[in-house]
Write a structure and sequence with these properties.
The complex is a heterotrimer.
Chain A lengths: L4 H10 L29 E6 L8 E6 L7 E6 L12 H4 L1 H5 L9 E3 L7 E2 L2 H18 L1 E4 L5 E5 L2 E4 L6 H14 L4 E2 L5
Chain B lengths: L12 E5 L3 H4 L3 H10 L3 E5 L5 H5 L2 E3 L6 H14 L5 H7 L12 E2 L2 E2 L2 E3 L8 E3 L26 H9 L4 H8 L3 H12 L8 E5 L1 H4 L4 H14 L10 E3 L6 H6 L6 E2 L3 E2 L8 H8 L15 H13 L25 H9 L5 E5 L3 H4 L3 H8 L4 E6 L22 E6 L8 E4 L4 E5 L12 H18 L5 H5 L5 E2 L2 E2 L1 H9 L6 E3 L2 E3 L28 E2 L2 E2 L21 E2 L27 E3 L4 E3 L91 E6 L15 H6 L4 E5 H7 L6 E5 L4 E9 L5 E3 L2 E3 L1 E5 L35 E7 L1
Parallel strand pairs in B: 1-2, 1-8, 2-3, 8-9, 12-13, 13-14, 26-32, 27-29
Antiparallel strand pairs in B: 4-5, 6-7, 10-11, 15-16, 16-23, 17-18, 19-20, 21-22, 24-25, 26-33, 28-29, 28-33, 30-31
Chain C lengths: L2 E6 L8 H10 L25 E9 L2 E9 L8 H6 L5 E3 L6 E3 L8 H7 L6 E2 L5 E2 L5 H5 L5 H5 L5 E5 H16 L6 E3 L6 E5 L21 H8 L3 H7 L2
Parallel strand pairs in C: 1-10
Antiparallel strand pairs in C: 1-8, 2-3, 4-5, 6-7, 9-10
Classes of the chains: A alpha+beta, B alpha/beta, C alpha+beta.
Chain lengths: 191, 816, 239
């Protein structure tokens, strides 16, 4: 039975347990083949650091080099000096975070008073957001505070996030927010 | 962490308190286990018997919110039995400092307390000048190295904690006296030279109205026992998000700028004024006072923000940047308070889910409906982006526009993150982003370009936006290497330093080369040395250990500062530079240089071989103005010594330690109609203590784990754990759904009736405690039956950090 | 010589990474579960769940213990399930690794017989009758990798290697932990390839932690089956 990873994910997402999988397990091959081929044999290997807690465990990502180019396996990196191949249950499930039918795949927009989302293009979403930012920043901009001290800040916008971003992303994010004049800049470290 | 994960294995005694590391940092237990196999003792102190407790040699229960009483008792024990490292205490801590005559502690208050007007968020505040040290004519703190002066820190410490006798401590914490003594005796044994004790803590210590002081109490213990700077020692915050260390270092926080520089205040009207105010000055030539370098770091940061547009003439762009008002708070709780009051039109929730993660989340959810627009960037739809269709919401009455942007997951992009041990590690792209999702970096860059385009035409104060250096792309895509290099920093001119010429355009080798004249940039001085002309240090994978073989692995990844794996390591040696622990030594003075870890500065040891003082040396605690570990901490909002105060909501009528001051006199308590509390009373409607925590199978609000079937299989529903005794009292059966309620909200949970919770005996009465994990929300699982315990948590927090008090509040439990 | 697991329950923290790593490697779907008043989930091993960490609260000598037991197939040295199946195309032992392997042909076997033959109550079936259980990650082992559950284990509770090495490790750890847990023992070390070290009476961990006394005696059923076994299967035993 040859079920691709993504089909498998779809099946998992859509059906009750146990329904769809007979024969998926490696050991269920009807013929004896001891020297089985690993599912990861022809995959691209990259190293990553787990995205959950801050132990910083290393993991190996196996990405298919054929077809959809998606992840087929993620497991602990035995050469990582901290975790030496081990991962906790969240880390062990990293492939399901990646290949997950619940993921958002397109920008979505909810209009005032609307009851649902509608998918929109990146171009439209980012242009509209930029407009909102400019309108709100400029209308709430304080050059001076009550004491007439120069403060150059935008009081109408607040930002939270994110410890889930890479260092480089964090840095450019705070740079952009501060250049806009935001002072309400907070994130996970505060909670 | 002052130390790092692998180093836990070097410990002789591990105190896990305020954390359930076995569950929430499971890989830490690789090293806890290794230490135990080498004979280390593991102590677990927790209101609930956890997976950590199950592996511990000693378990002691305590009521949530009483850690200072518990640890204050340990300070008393250590001093009473003289178990401290006297040489260390005299030479490396401020125990000998003389405190000014204005300092006092009476009736639960330190000197200098002033009440605020009624209806203020904080009831009062302290004039900290009353706690200042006495200085000599040169401006150096006066000391009594014999520790006998009645106003020296050591004697004040003794006096303060002599009140924390085990009987009284037990009455407050509910810990049996015998258990207290067992813990004290076992841990205090690490005061012996060559022994190391470590502290592993997490949000169990921070999420209190006395959060900072919980950690301070442990820091005092570690300084007394000589456990700071040594292998297997330290104060180790087990941080909970993969890059919460890095995002804190880069300061996605209102009060600090990258590298822990102070956010400019409105009174800092020029760059010079800013630098004058925030650069500490020490009059002691032997104090390294590292923050004296603040001008180099600040100017280099401004050069990174604005590149060539930052010039000496325009104060490197300082005036373009926003200033906060002096004395005002802009932190998380205040942010949502302002949002609730309608202050903001726009809100960015970037990779965060405040509809579930914020304390008193009902208020946060209502606040979001007051916004005109929200940008929500995430991997999955979530309770924040979809707040308008959440429980109790009527979309047709909610005006807020929401833009929900799909970001990719971490294995679909390239960049670095920094772990709890300060290790910066590089990770690579596996697959491409799924669907039309994009990396956060790419989204931020594109948004920046769009905004810049608009401001080219018009807009208020366009300079900071137009001049912001924004060239971190290659072929139109975000390039993390370009930012990583900027974070490290460049020479912007040819610069000669100590006879070496550094060419314009090259990467700065380390932060000792940064300049205050605009000739260097560095987007974060702490990371200067992470990406140099030698390459990307964070990407290194060398498996060779350092000569001392204590698991430093200096060629694996890179850590700040300067690849120093154990900070304060110059306190791991005696004044002659020889390690206290000759086996697991961190650094050692060979007579002309240090070997082992990168030392905290290369100066020679404090004493020459004959015991005379070496004036070329510097005191080991180089980040402190005076160079000493701070047993007395005069800079905190709530007092120079930690003191036991009850949580805002608590099960006792009296603070047995301070009958006249029940709760922290300076804790913030928010005041809108959405901020109901039972402050000051034992409200019979909510008789049980509740704490929140995590389980190993989910993460934070669960937003990244609840949409995953494998993890949901393991922990499918929000639950409330309670003792068998409480279940009998309330007629609740194991596994049935119950209602948990506080003054602020209700939550349906599945009851887990367990022997792992036991009722506490507090001051002669029985107090029950329950616990609920905080990972759930209505969006996932899709049935919508679960929600967040933060709907119940209180609108208060630590006076220093304003981290909310989600670890101790009062609830009721009823059968459904 | 084949391989064995050594599972040191004194080091298990019940993080359940082994449960997930098993599903991840084998591409097994999640089960729809509910909280039943315990952390333990799914409630049992199944066709889609080869591994369940059992968690039991026990007060022993006046002290509360939380005992963890990562349950899985023991890969018996003389597997009763294999004996009673009597069909090497359905259940066989990989002589090189020692893995007891169930193939798709298990759907032609009598499930109740197989399950009852197991001293540890491990085999489970799907709706079409196909049986499944831990396969020792035989594909990984053949390719020089550790079983997924062993590789992921944070504390060293799960170990895997050559049988002699695992037996040595088990004896060494038994001696070490005896100082703290005088009642510590190894469970059925001579009969199985998954050797558990427990600190207390095995049944305190899980009903089926230890084989019942008679389990490794030839049951009447197995004896009968052996007598009447079709010739082809006897022949296959002679290899």
């Amino acid at each position: 039975m040859n079920v691709t990873r993504r089909e498998f994910i779809q099946i998992t997402g859509a059906t009750a347990a146990g329904l769809a999988v007979s024969g998926l397990g490696i050991g269920l091959s009807p013929v004896k083949s001891h020297a089985q081929m690993l599912k990861t044999k022809y995959a691209k290997e990259t190293s990553t650091i787990c995205c959950y807690c801050a132990v910083g465990c290393g993991a190996i990502v196996h990405t298919s080099q054929k077809g959809d180019g998606r992840v087929i396996n993620i497991e602990g990196d035995p050469d990582h000096i901290i975790n030496k191949g081990s991962l906790c249950p969240k880390g062990a499930a990293l492939s399901q975070l990646t290949e997950n039918s619940n993921r958002l795949l397109d920008p979505m927009y909810r209009a005032p008073y609307a009851k649902e989302w509608k998918p929109v293009s990146w171009e439209w979403a980012l242009s509209e957001i930029a407009k909102r930012i400019q309108e709100t920043r400029d209308s709430s901009f304080q050059h001076k505070n009550e004491k007439k001290q120069i403060v150059n800040r935008a009081m109408g916008i607040a930002s939270v996030g994110s410890a889930a971003m890479d260092n480089e992303e964090c840095w450019i994010y705070q740079a952009l927010m501060r250049a806009l004049g935001l002072v309400y800049i907070e994130h996970q470290a505060r909670i | 962490m002052t130390n790092h994960w692998i180093d836990i294995r070097n410990s002789d005694c591990i105190l896990i308190m305020g954390s359930n590391a076995a569950s929430n940092h499971p890989i830490s237990f690789k090293y806890v286990t290794e230490a135990q196999k080498r004979g280390a003792k593991l102590i677990s102190v927790d209101p609930r018997f956890t997976q950590t407790s199950a592996k511990a040699d000693i378990y002691a229960p305590l009521r949530s919110g009483t850690d200072i009483a518990f640890l204050g008792g340990m300070i008393n024990y250590i001093l009473d039995k003289k178990l401290y490292n006297e040489e260390y205490v005299k030479n490396y801590t401020n125990a000998p400092f003389i405190v000014g005559k204005d300092y006092s502690f009476k009736n639960g208050l330190f000197s200098g307390y002033r009440k605020n007007p009624p209806a203020s968020v904080t009831a009062g505040g302290y004039d900290k000048s009353k706690w200042a040290f006495e200085l000599d004519n040169n401006g150096v703190p006066k000391m009594d190295r014999n520790l006998s002066n009645s106003r020296c820190v050591f004697q004040l410490l003794k006096k303060h904690y002599s009140r924390y006798n085990t009987k009284l401590v037990s009455k407050i914490t509910g810990t049996p006296e015998q258990d207290l003594l067992t813990v004290y005796k076992t841990y205090a044994a690490t005061g012996a030279k060559g022994k190391a004790g470590t502290s592993m803590y997490a949000m169990g210590w921070t999420q209190h109205t006395v959060g900072v002081q919980n950690i301070r109490t442990m820091a005092i213990i570690q300084l007394l026992l000589g456990n700071m700077g040594v292998a297997g020692g330290g104060i180790n915050a087990l941080r909970g998000e993969s890059n919460v260390q890095g995002s804190t270092d880069h300061c996605l926080l209102w009060h600090i700028w990258p590298g822990y520089l102070k956010t400019p205040r409105s009174s800092d009207d020029t760059l010079d004024a800013y630098l004058k105010r925030w650069t500490p000055a020490s009059k002691d030539p032997m104090s390294a006072n590292w923050w004296q370098n603040t001008p180099k770091y600040m100017v280099s940061l401004l050069k990174s923000y604005f590149g060539d547009k930052a010039t000496k003439e325009n104060e490197f762009g300082y005036q373009w940047m926003p200033k906060v008002d002096d004395g005002k708070d802009y932190s998380w709780l205040t942010l949502f308070d302002e949002m609730y009051k309608g202050t903001f039109k726009g809100f960015m929730a970037w990779g965060q889910n405040p509809a579930c993660s914020g304390s008193n989340a009902n208020k946060n959810r209502k606040a979001m409906a007051k916004l005109d627009w929200m940008v929500n960037v995430n991997i999955f739809d979530n309770e924040t982006g979809s707040f308008w269709r959440g429980p109790g919401m009527n979309p047709s009455t909610i005006k807020t526009e929401v833009f929900m942007l799909p970001c990719c997951v971490s294995v679909e992009k390239e960049g670095s993150i920094t772990n709890s041990g300060r290790w910066m590690q590089w990770r690579y792209q596996g697959p491409k982003p799924l669907g039309n999702s994009l990396s956060d970096g790419h989204i931020i860059m594109q948004l920046g370009h769009k905004i810049k385009e608009l401001y080219k035409k018009q807009g208020a104060l366009p300079e900071p936006i137009l001049n912001l250096k924004w060239d971190y792309e290659t072929h139109g895509h975000f390039d993390s290497h370009k930012v990583a290099k900027e974070i490290n920093g460049y020479f912007h001119e040819d610069v000669e330093i100590q006879g070496v010429l550094y060419k314009k355009g090259t990467l700065v080798p380390n932060f000792t080369k940064l300049q205050a004249d605009g000739s260097t940039s560095s987007a974060n001085w702490l990371y200067c040395n992470s990406y140099t002309e030698k390459g990307n240090m964070a990407a290194r994978k060398g498996l060779e250990d350092a000569p001392n073989k204590i698991g430093l692995y200096p060629d694996f990844a890179w850590c700040w500062p300067l690849n120093r794996r154990i900070i304060y390591n110059r306190a791991s040696v005696d004044p002659k530079g020889q390690p206290y622990d000759t086996q697991d030594w961190v650094i050692r003075w060979t007579g002309n240089k240090w070997i082992g870890d990168v030392p905290d500065g290369g100066w020679p040891p404090l004493q020459n071989l004959d015991g005379t003082l070496n004036p070329k040396s510097k005191y080991p605690f180089i980040m402190r103005k005076h160079g000493y570990g701070q047993i007395f901490g005069p800079g905190l909002t709530d007092g120079p010594f930690p003191e036991h105060y009850e949580p805002l909501e608590c099960p006792v009528e009296t603070n047995y330690m301070n009958p006249k001051q029940k709760i922290s006199p300076v804790a913030p308590v928010y005041l809108t109609e959405a901020d109901l509390t039972t402050e000051g009373t034992c409200d019979p409607r909510f008789p049980y203590v509740c704490s929140t925590y995590r389980v190993t199978e989910h993460w934070q609000t669960g937003l990244m784990t609840r949409p995953q079937p494998w993890l949901l299989e393991l922990q499918p529903q929000v639950f409330v754990e309670m003792s068998e005794e409480l279940s009998k009292l309330r007629g609740i059966k194991n596994g049935e759904r119950v209602m948990v309620s506080s003054a602020r909200g209700t939550l349906e949970c599945t009851a887990i009736v367990t022997q792992r919770f036991k009722p506490f005996k507090i001051g002669g009465t029985i107090v029950h405690e329950v616990g609920v994990p905080w990972h759930f929300g209505w969006r996932w699982p899709e049935k919508g039956t679960e929600d967040s315990i933060n709907l119940l948590t209180p609108p208060t927090g630590d006076p220093n950090t304003r981290i909310p008090e989600t670890k101790a509040f009062m609830v009721n439990i009823t059968k459904l | 010589m084949s391989n064995s697991f050594f599972i040191d329950t004194t080091l298990c923290t019940a993080c359940r990474a082994c449960q997930v790593a098993c599903k991840q490697w084998h591409d097994l779907p999640a089960e729809i579960t509910q909280n039943r008043g315990t952390y333990e989930n799914p409630p049992d091993v199944s066709f889609n769940t080869y591994k369940v960490v059992r968690m039991r609260e026990n007060v022993i000598d006046g002290k509360l213990n939380w005992l963890f037991f990562p349950e899985q197939c023991r890969h018996c040295i003389e597997p009763p399930c294999q004996d009673i199946a009597g069909d090497e195309n359905a259940i066989y032992t990989d002589a090189k690794t020692g893995a007891v392997i169930y193939t798709a042909n298990t759907k032609y076997l009598n499930f109740e017989e197989i399950r009852e033959a197991c001293p540890y109550n491990i085999p489970r079936k799907s709706s079409d009758g196909t049986m499944a259980k831990c396969d020792m990650c035989n594909d990984r082992v053949h390719n020089g990798l550790l079983p997924a559950c062993v590789q992921t284990c944070p504390t060293g509770a799960m170990n895997f290697g050559k049988r002699e090495e695992m037996l040595d490790l088990a004896q060494k750890r038994l001696l070490e932990v005896k100082a703290k847990y005088p009642k510590a023992e190894l469970i059925d070390p001579n009969d199985v390839r998954v050797i558990y070290l427990v600190a207390y009476e095995p049944t305190l961990y899980h009903e089926f932690a230890i084989a019942s006394n008679a389990a490794f005696d030839m049951t009447r059923q197995v004896a009968l089956r052996k007598i009447f076994r079709p010739l082809k299967n006897i022949a296959s035993h002679l290899f």
